[in-house]
Amino acid sequence: MSFLAKTSIFGNIYKFAPVSGVLSRLYSSEVPQFETLAITVPKKHVFHVELNRPKQLNSITSLMWKELKDCFESLNENSECRVVLLSARGKHFTAGIDFNSLLEENSKAEEHEDVARKAKIFEKLITHCQDGITSLERCNKPILAVVHSACVGAGVDLITAADVRYCTQDAWFQVKEVDVGLAADVGTLQRLPKVVGNTSTVRELCFTARRFDSQEASELGLVSRVYSDQESAIKNVLETAVIIASKSPVAVQNTKKSLVYSQSRPNEVGLEHIKLINQAMLQSEDLKKAAIAQATKSTTEYENL
User: Fold this and answer.
1) Which residues of 165-191 are buried (b: 16+ CB within 10 A; e: fewer)?
2) 135-172 residue pLDDT tens
3) Helix ranges (DSSP H) in the chain
4) pLDDT category, 8, cuts 50, 70, 90?
5) What does the pLDDT read at residue 24?
6) Alpha-helical regions (H) of 34-61
7) Could you tell me which of 47, 41, 46 has the C-alpha nearest to residue 25?
8) Quick count: other Cβ atoms within 10 Å of Cβ 159?
9) What is the pTM (predicted TM-score) of this model?
């Protein structure tokens, strides 16, 4: 179970720690702590979430599903957090679902003979996994995912729920589920077609479970940019995160709300949604501050939201 840790600053507001080859400065005194995830604050208002089961290739267990949900729900409510960088420690981004964990859940269903009772157990399991992934989409803070090496199965589910995706040259992707006798049920079939915008290619990838590399991922539009290695990727994406964090949190977070809401609805419904939001948000002090900064060609600081 996660908890909110009060970090000791030893009389200073800064704390340094190496994270994925990048020196990390801790700007927040409140950082959620987890067993399967590592959280740091390398820049002001920028939280870095790393999958942290490197010896197990960051395979996703029942605990990690839960901690993903807890983590992004916590960051959604954390006013100091304005943008999230998502990456992974170790050799691979993720090998996908941990099959030992899956078999444990399957054994619970096998205790029952009746199909309805088995189905109820699997319904709970699938919902548990879906909630872990959907928490990224429900988090109002923009999430920038950086993939290196393998991103398999549930890893594709995870990154398609992020807002922006980047990868390294050695990255490769695979919608693996049909190879293990499953239809993907945690978000890939729903989100990947929207992300890529090419249902023919997406269906081929999902039907065949073939691997595709960083170049194809870039050509498909799955990732925005390909970097030479993880260190340069995180360094450059962190710069993008800093830019986002410098903007009005009112503007950025409502932009994400509208994008997520509108992606599967008719334009007129999305327009009504943002109209209802902005009839209140246009009264925010952030609008006045931004207007003055634009007029005077200066920078401004925004209050936390």
Assistant:
1) bbbbebbbbbbbbeeeeeebebbbbbb
2) 999 999 999 999 999 999 999 999 999 999 999 999 99
3) 62-77, 99-110, 115-138, 154-160, 188-196, 199-208, 214-220, 230-246, 249-262, 267-281, 285-296
4) very low
5) 47
6) none
7) 41
8) 31
9) 0.89
Q: Which residues, 6+ apart, have CB-to-CB distance to 149 below 8 Å?
A: 91, 92, 93, 168, 170, 171, 172
Q: Of 63-77, 90-104, 267-281, which gets the smallest average pLDDT?
A: 90-104
Burial 216-235 (b: 16+ CB within 10 A, else e): ebbebebbeebbeebeebbe
- Spatial separation of the C-alpha atoms in residues 59 and 210, rounded to whole Å: 19
Q: What single DSSP character describes residue 82?
A: -
**In terms of Cα–Cα distance, which of 234, 239, 120 is closest to 168?**
234
Q: Is the pLDDT of residue 10 over 60?
A: no
Q: Of 36, 28, 30, give the one whose Cα is nearest residue 1.
A: 36
Q: What digits encode the pLDDT tens for the residues 210-227? A: 999 999 999 999 999 999
pLDDT exceeds cutoff 80 at 22: no
Has residue 12 got a pLDDT over 50?
no
Query: Strand (E) positions, 34-92?
Result: 37-43, 46-51, 83-88
* Strands 37-43 and 143-147, sheet pairing: unpaired
Token pair belonging to 54: 């490197």
- Give the pLDDT score at 115: 87
Contacts of 146 (CB under 8 A, 6+ apart): 85, 86, 87, 166, 167, 168, 230, 233, 234, 237
**Distance in angstroms (rounded) separating the CA atoms of residues 270 and 263:** 8
Q: How would DSSP label each residue in 204-241?
A: HHHHH---EEHHHHHHHTS-SEEESSHHHHHHHHHHHH
At 18, is the secondary structure helix, strand, or coil?
A: strand
Closest by CA position to 135, among listed 82, 183, 67: 67
